[in-house]
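Lines hold sequence, tokenised fold; shown next:
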Amino acid sequence: MGTASIHEGVRRMRFSRLLERTEAKELTQEEASEMLGINVRTFQRWADRYEAEGDDGLADRRMGRPSSRRAPMIEIERMLGLYRDKYADFTVKHFHEQLAKRHGYLLGYTVTKRALHLAGLVRAAPKRSAHRKKRPRRPIAGMMLHQDGSRHPWLEGQPAMDLIVTMDDATSEVYSMVLVDEEGTASTFLALREVIGERGLFCSLYTDRGSHYFYTPKAGEKVSKTQQTQVGRALAHLGIEHIAAYSPEARGRSERMFCTLQGRLPKDLRLAGITTVEAANTWLKATYIAEHNAAFAIQAEQEGAAFVSDRHEAFREALCVIEERTVGNDNTVAWNGHRLQLPKSRLRPHFVKAVVRVHEYPNGTVAVFLGPHRLASFTAEGAEIGPDAPEPGSVLAAVKDRPCGRAKSASLTAPARAALAVAQVGAEKRPSSRTKKQVKRRQDLAVHAVS
């Protein structure tokens, strides 16, 4: 017996009792109809049908008839066939979105889910208790960003890879998605450069305690506040607070987001025909991120944003691996098994024994710096890329654009006598002939005065 039949039986019993009370003059028809939730005219019609046909006259005549607003069975069958043939591993919501997007499907989500349940193709999810939010969201976008990685077979036919996602705490809006072979310092810098380059500097970054994020002296304990990783050093340089999470529950928003992505993204990549990492990263940035945010991002509690524009683009030289090296006797720098040959420079004849900084960028290229001066750039294999074009206002540009010749500048390694000689440059030496003429003229004047 269905719910509708039970409700009809209850309605019959209530009506028959109230009808008896109206006939006994205990209630008026207006009072009885109000108790039933119907108007007086309906109560009178039911009374006439009950008198003429008995209890059968109270039967709901809509029972057993198909509704005029019922979903067409042809469309339901088409939907079930598509699910069996092509979308059997999709969730109902994801399946309904693809039906509307790719197959011109117009029926609602609830009708679709109910039909799949009745057909036995989808099992109803168990009811869960209300989610308890222990930590409120940040009120403004840009105040806190989450970054995390998830290892999963994202591409069909490819081994498991790491997907690095950076999202906002206030809105759950995804700012960056990068698919890499393995999560690490380079992938973190790559994602942060993308976010800061497009939106600006933010207030804080919330991550797990991975070894590329923090130094943890003892497993399971608090992270070190004195020792910094390359990521910690870069964030501190940019003024971004780095917050460590001490449990998976603390990163609940990231965990739930990756649960959604693992259920949807591999299927969307398959439908788009994408099989390579390069094509996947291009498609994620151009297409998927916007669709994901349209479906799952929410409004921040307050308007505005906490992002600050990095007008000098300091993040480009901060978000990279930076280490010091001492230049060898052959004017080269050792880096990752390569010898980086420093070219000639206007700063000094050579850089032997000088302490320089090596910057390795996320794309694998390397640059060597002496203070604020970029000495040279190299490929990941150690080949020199070529002289850098001077940037307006940079220290390096000022050195390169100086019109004076090399002969008039003192060498940094020259002896003190040479430096003194150079310091006198500009005092024009008087010709010897002119000096002799002046002395002879003075002597002639003296003789002439005596005579």
Summary: Residues 3-23 form the longest helix (21 residues).
